[in-house]
Structure formats: C-alpha cells, structure tokens
Give the backbone structure.
Amino acid sequence: MANRRVNALTKSKIPKPTLVTRNRTAISREHDNIQREKPLKEISNEEILQNKETNLETTSKNSSVPTWKTVKPNIACRASQDKDNPLRKVRERLERQESKIEQVELTTKSYEQQQLQYQQQMDSLMKNIKNIKDRISETERTIENLEDELFLATNELETIQQNKKEQERQLDELKVEKSVVQGQIQLEEAKIQSVHSRIEEQKVILNNIYEEQLSLQKQIQLKKSETQDELYNVEELTTKEGNLQKEIAKLKKQKDEYLMLLSEQECEREKIIQELDKLEADCRKQQKEIHETEDRKSAIEKEIADLQFQEESYPQRKQHLEKEVDQLRKEISAVEETINDCRVKLSLKENEYKTKEDALETLRNSSERTLFTEKKNLSSIQSQLDEAKERNEQLQQAIKKKDRDAEYFDSSVEQQHTLLVSLRNKLSTLELRLEEERNVHLIEQQKLCTLQERTHRQQTIIDEMKEQRLKNGTIHDDLQRKVYEMRPNMQVFCKLDDCESVEEPTVDSLQKLILERQNSEVLARKVRDSEELSSCIFPFDQVFDTNISNSQIFRHCIAFVDQLWKERNVCIFGYSTHTHQRKMFFDMNAGLSFLTLLHLLESINENSGSRFALVVEFFRVWKQELEDMFSSSTTDANGTVQSENRQDDTNKENALTAIEISNEMQLQDSIVSRLDFQKVQSQLGHYVFRIRVKDKSLHSSNTQSSITYVHLQMPDMYNSETLQTNETDENFFSFLQLLTQLANREKSVFSRSSTCILTNKIFECLNDNPKLLSILQVPKTTRNIQNTLQLLNLGQKLSCCEVVQGKSTGHR
C-alpha cells in the first residue's frame, strides 16, 4: 500500500512530456549523423537496436505522462510513424533471420556431431566385424584341422582294421597248417610205433630160438652121458646125430635168414630213426615256427587289443571333437547372429543418417530461399529508406523551429525522471531488506523445529532406556532370587554353532532354541537335584544365539557364575561339534578329576610358545589287565626309578603316591607289589600318566626322545574318579613336583615358561576361585545331543546324560 501511494504521488507531481519531444530528440540525432556525412545505408544493426531501445524507453516515459499537457502535431506523429514502422519490420526480419541462421548452424553442428558419432560407431562395428570374421576364420581353420584329424583318424582306423583282418586270416592259415602238421606227426608216430612192435616181436622169436638151442645142447650132453653105458645104441645115435646136424644146419640157415632179416630190419630201423630225426628236426622247426607264430599271434593280439582300445577311444575322441565342433558351430551361429544384429543396427542407423541428411538438405534449401527473400526485402527497405531520407530533410527545417520550444519541457522532464529513479531505487532497497528479514525468520523457525524434534527423540530414547533398565533390573533380581533359591549340581550353557548345513531343520529341532528375545535372556532353567541326575535328564540352563560372543556370555552370566563358585558346587564343560575342540570337566565340590588335569595339561602344552611339549596320556590300570595293557607299548631295558615322593606317615591312608618309572615291566612289578603289599582287592584302580616329549614341528608320533610313566595310586575306593577337596592340595603337590623335575631334567627340549604356566594354572584351579566358563557349541540342525555328550567321555555322571528338548515353556 505504501509503495502504491508513493507511485501515485510521483505520477501526479511529474509533468508528462509529449511525444513531440521524444520524436524531436530522435530526429535531432539522425540529423547530426546526416550532417557528419554518414549515409543511412551504412548504419549498423547495433545502432538500429540502440535506437529501437531508446524509442521504447521514450514511449514508456511518454505513456506515463498525462495527456492534458501534451501537444499533438499531426505532422510529427505521421513522420515518426513513417520513420519507425519500416525500421521495426527490418529489424524484426533481421532478428528472425539471425535466429533461423543460428538454429540452422546449431542443427548442422549437431548433425555433424551425430555424423562423427555414427562414423565412430561404424568404425567400431567394422572393427568388431573384422574381429568376428577373424574369429570365424580361426574357428573354420580349427574345424578344418579337426576334420582333417578326423579323416586321418578314420583312415588309420580303416588301415588298422584291414591289418587286423589280414592278421586274422594269417592266424587262420597258421592254425590250418598247424593242424595238418600235427596230423602228419601223428601218422609218423603211428608208423614208428608199428615198427617198434615188429622189432619187439622178432626179438621175442630170436630169444625163443636161442633158448631151444640151449635146451637141445643140454639134452645132447645128457644123451652122450647116457650113451657111454649103452654103446650098442651108437649107430642109432649117430644116425640121430646126422639127423640132428641136418636139423641144426637147417636151424642155422633159418638163423642166418633171421639175422639177415634182423640186419635188414636194423637198416630199416636206422632209416626210420633218421627219418624220425628229420621229422623231429622238422617238428622242432615247426614248433619254432609255431612259437614264432604264437608270439606273432600274441603281438598281433596285443596290437588288436591296442587297436580295440584305440577303436574304443576313437569314438570318445570323435564325440569330444564333435562336441567341440558343435560348440564352435554354436559360437559361430552366435557370432553370425551378433553380426546380423550389427548389420540390422547399421542399416537402421544408415536410414536414420539418410533421413537426417535429407532433413539437412531441406533445411539448407529453405534457409537459402529465406535468405534470397530477405535480400529482396532488404533492397525494398533500402529504397524506402532513401525516400524517408528525402522526407527527413524536408522535415528537419520544421523540427529545428520546434526544438527551441521543446528544450524547456525536456529539462523539466529529465529532472522529474531523476527523482523517479531515486525513489524507485529506495523502494528496491527496502524490498530487499524485507526479503532478507523474512529469510532469517524462516531459518530460525526451521532451527526451532529441528531442536524440538531432537528433544522429542532424546526424550523417547531416555524413556526406552529407563524401561530397559527397569526390565534388566527385574531380570537381574529374578536371576539372583532363583540363584539363591536353587542348589544346582551342574550348570551347562549352550551356544548355537554358526555352521551351514544343507538339511532344513524340523519344528522339533534345536533351532527353535534361538532367543526370541534378544540380549541373551534366559529361555529355560530348571532346578536339578539328585532325582533328575539319577533319571539321566540333562537340560540346558541357558541357550544363546550365534550373534553373541563368548566374552559377552561370560559378562552376562558373571553374577550367576560367581555365586556358583562361592558355593563351590559347579560342573562346567565345553565341546564344539564344528571345530572338534578339546573338552573340559570341572567339579569343585568333589575336587579336581584326573581328566580335568589331563585336559588342562594338553591345552597348556598346545598353547605354549615353546618348540617342544610334554604329551600326557592317561589310562587306568587294573590288576587283571596289566599284561594286556602293556603288551602293545614299547619297552626300555634301562628301567630305574627316577624319584619317589611320599607323604607323611600320618596321612598315608588318604595320600596319593606318585612314582616316576621309565620301564613298563618295572611299572607292572611296582603295581603288583603294591597290590600284594597292601592286600587290596583287584577292583582297585591305579592311574598312570604316560609322559613323552614331542617336537611340535614334527607330525609323526614315532620321533620321540623319551617316555616316562607316572604311577598315581589312590588307596581308598571312592567309586568315582575324583578326590575330596581337602585332599587336593596335598595329593597333587607331589605330582606337580614330579612334573617340574621332569621339565627341569629335559631342559634341552622343554622350556621353563610352560612349566610355570602349568603349575600356575593348576594352583589357580586348586586355591583361588577360578573364572572358568566353557560353552557347548551345537549346530543348528542337531536333533539329538546324546552322541556329542557321549563323545565327551568325562566320567559316569556325564556319559549317562542326555538332552531333553522341550517346547516354548521349557527349552532344554
């Protein structure tokens, strides 16, 4: 409103100049230019634009001047109109032409850039096409090579098959020849056998004849002895002798004939033997040839087997090559598809390029036409300007007369215009100040809103913290109250293992034991007394998620565990089914167990920084099992008792005696002598620690420097594997002394730092209240943890326990 009032006052006070003064000033300026001999043809576009701006300003000023003071001569108005109209048209046309020319230049530049881009894309596509063609040519070469290899392989197969067939034919021929030779050999063997039978028959006949001759000679001798008495029968006997001599001559002739036959048969036999020798030589040659043929046959069979193997492998190679050819063909088809796509894209882009080129040509033609028309218009405008110059020269004389009258009005108008400008500047400054103040106010309001939101968030966070503190306080009070109420024998904490498994767990699986409420709240707790332990039920006290660490679990349960340590009535153990770490068993109320000591020693030796470690193995010895126990172990000839630590006579009944022994036989003798000396039954157990020095860098168990056996005797029968709490310090002190002596004796292989750690750890477990907390890590997919608990092997109490899995009311 104030601005409007100021504008109204200024308008009422300022005398509005007439249009005559405005036209006079312009005409006077043009007259000055004419006097300086500057023709109108050489007027630049900038001057025309300046004149146009000045004319517009004067018209705006004149529009604000009231009409009651203006003088409107008809001549001046007409001259100004005739002067302004053609110039405006020319300027507007020139501006349009310039804008069109700029647009055409911009379009040409854009088209040129697009052409460059298209050329670059074309070059890249051509390169890709060349690369693809090269790849295609390479693949075709590889295919040709593979086809050549296939052709060669098939030719080799055909030649091998032909060779195989020829070799089979040769084998068949050799078999036929072998059968013929074998028939001939059999016939010749039959002939030889027949000749041998004839010779044997003739030998039998000759033997008979020789026997008859001997019998006849004996008869002749008998008859001669008989004829000495009977001479009167001499004549008869002489006749008989003549007859007999004739018969003998006949027999000799027969004998000669038989001998001739025998000589002839022997010649035939020699001939037959020679023939047999020849046949045997031929047979040997044939056998050699047969062996050679068999060797050839074996070689041929080997070659056939190789060829069969090659035949079996050739289809695999052929399949493999065909697969490779198919893959190459697929790749070629894919490349051809990409080439086709690229060609299609190229064709599309070429069409677009052609269309754009056509559009450019049309634009160029249109711009040339417009330029030609504009040139014609400029020529007409120049003719009109010449006419206007003549008119202006006529009007200048009239205008000079009226300039003097208008000077007074111009001075007053300029003064009023300066006042208006100053007032407008003041108004603009005031408006800027107002806008700045408004912006500052808005910024302050935004800051206030953000502060209010922060305060609201902090208030909500404080309220949530208070609620959480109240909940934690109630939970802590409930825990303390339950801890003070119950008297547990064992406390077991379960942490789910973060191992991945393929099987999906069922509804009854252990995955349902994950915390529904975060920050490891207690899911299940149940007071366990002697009845539950006797019924072999072993529930979990707490179950933790995989997101929480062991240190956080310990901090969460530290108050609960401290209370249990104070009461010295706790059993905590740990086992990881995923990493298979060592177990631990600890029962303070019943004292340290030997298994606990064993696991402590192993964990300390494994974690120590020394190169060598004492490997302690534990086993229990019974009187009836001594021979079976020590039969498999190694023996040492030099068996001597190294040291012996005994307790006082007052505490002999309940003391634990420890003896270091280096020989299994002496250990056996010492145990038997102790059993016989004390007259103890065979059910009493003796604990033996086998201690040996092991090099950690060597993985093999055979490389060991020494073995020492420590015999620990427990005189009373406790039916358990632990000692009483009041006896632990005295009983294990001797054993610790013995271990330190062992470590000092093995100075060259075992460092003192590990022995110090060992003794400190065991004394911490004995004297102070130890803060030991082991966690049972179980996979999410485990449905029964009884097997994992049996793997612990921690005595009768834990070996018979099992896990009972309940529902939301009592997870175990």
In short: DSSP finds 15 helices and nine strands in the chain. The chain has four domains: 2-122+353-432, 162-350, 489-586+770-812, 611-748. The longest strand covers residues 612-621.
